[in-house]
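Hello again,

I reread your note about wanting to compare the complex against the isolated chains. To keep things tidy I'm splitting this into two emails, and this first one only covers the full assembly. Below are the input lines as submitted, including protein chains and any nucleic acid or small-molecule components. They are followed by the predicted structure of everything together. The single-chain runs will come separately.
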Amino acid sequence: MPEPISGPTHEPLPEPIPGPTREPVPGPATGSALEMRGVTAGYDRRAPVLHGASLTVGDGEAVGLLGPSGCGKSTLARVAALLHRPRAGTVRLAGRMAYGFRHRAPRELRTTVGVVFQQPRLAADPRLTLADLIAEPLRATGRRAEAPGRLPALAASVGLGGDLLARRPHEVSDGQLQRACLARALVLRPRLLICDEMTAMLDASTTAALVAAVEEYRREHGTALLAVGHDRVLLERWCDRTVDFGALLPR
Amino acid sequence: MTARLSVQELSVRFPLRGGRTVAAVTGVSFDLDPGECLALVGESGCGKSVLASALLGLLPGNARVGGAALLDGLDLLTAGEKELARRVRGRRIALIPQSPASHLTPVRTVRSQMEETVRELTGAGGPKLRGAAEAAAERAEFPADHLDRYPHQLSGGLAQRAATALALVGEAPLLIADEPTTGLDRDLVDRTADELRRHVDAGRGLLVITHDLAAAERIADRVAVMYAGRIVELTGAASFFGAPGPRHPYARGLLEALPERSFTPIPGMPPELDALPAGCAFAPRCDRATGDCAAVPALAGSRAGAVACHHAYSHAPETADA
Ligand code: SF4
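Full-complex prediction:
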């Protein structure tokens, strides 16, 4: 394993970075769904939340990441979802470099990862109907035309029936809104789904229903999963393996 | 001072435009004694938070309220806002809020907020104020050497204790905690539950509103399960979480959905509160439903255990693991 990189600046990486940085998306990607090496990230340069973290999620694999709140696991999830740029280290999605030495995530890579957060009311634009909310990533990537063909089946797979899709966030329950956020995360058919405390605010039955919907989808599409949370019983029941956050850091 | 809460046939309706009505709470009755903790469990939108707002007199103006909620003879539902503000909230009923961070004022130290609340609720002033605020902090085990910190300098656990300390200043005999453990880690959940339990053991009544069954199991003496605005089962926590288990099909399904158990969701989703089906609201999702269920089942039984179902499970659970 390469030495983790620390410090405020990007050092040259200990492993070679393959390929030019701006190549178009190749056909079916190979390799692990997610590979993070020596990732340092945070909001305060002197006190990074993450320091040299490494984590691999195999293709189609479900990994549960456990840790107490404030430990940095949500920052790690945001880096993996390409929502937060690390200060050091490398991130590969589906074998392709997302972040590395002087390297920004290419736009196309964003479609390989979908993410669901803990609080659907913070994540959902209150002006959109659930149907528009789910289709948002299609619109953002210029693929709006695919929405009518894809939405009904996808919405049904997360348990959202017809008339709910015409409602706005304040007209549905937390559980229903979170189902819509899950559908939105899946609408671009990502290779990796990241669920960051997806069910922490939900009751037991809605939790089990959302997990069942994720697993049904993964069986069909082979999507890999990184489930981040603090509930060990839940993640052990849900995932192929679980890792404690502390084990990702260099000793 | 102790207090006994008796809620009788409480209903809350919200009229909608177009003549429809949201039936948020329907015919809810329960008693809560001093030194007792009742956990009100159910999914979001089942009416449990509306029920808490009704008890605190915090419903929006368009709500129509029926029934009674007697706190030592005072009906909380008909008392005037002045009476509630001056003599009830903070003094006889205290709310422990869902997210302590949003309940604390970010730009003032914990000490200054404690002192203000102490002054308001007890009239203490001058040199006595400092000691009274410190004593109030100590009651919630908030460390004295953290009193001069600002809320953002506190861990989640300490922020929760600060909010609890503020709620306890008026020594209200009845506490209502609204989702006190949401978003907390399991060991912080356990600690928060244990701290709340201490106040119950000191003689206070505690109504905990939660979707977290593990927290309810840890803290409650009795459990009330709400579904579509009604209490469908009200029973002792030991028999609910242990043997013989819940008797209502919904309550049973909720417990079975836990990852510690069969991790199987209840099929379907709860009904809309503005379009409740006639009869038992759980019928479309219930595998025991028959023609009888076209009539709403009444909550029947004793204080030891009551259930609202035409075909409740008997005491020999049929689906228990061998
Ligand atoms: S009354 Fe009927 S439908 Fe309702 S929970 Fe009982 S068996 Fe099921």
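For quick reference: Residues 316-322 of chain B have pLDDT under 50 and may be disordered.

B.
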